[in-house]
Amino acid sequence: MTENPEPFPFEQADPTGDAERDLRTALGRFPTGVAVVTALDADGLAIGLTVSSFNTVSLAPPLVVWSLQLTSRHLDSFDTTATYAINILSATQEEVSNLFASSLDRPFDQVGWAPGLSGVPLLEGCCAWFEVDNHQQLDGGDHRLYLGKVRRFAADPSPVPLVFHDGDYRVLRDR
Question: Looking at the whole model, is its pTM more than 0.90?
Answer without folding.
Answer: no
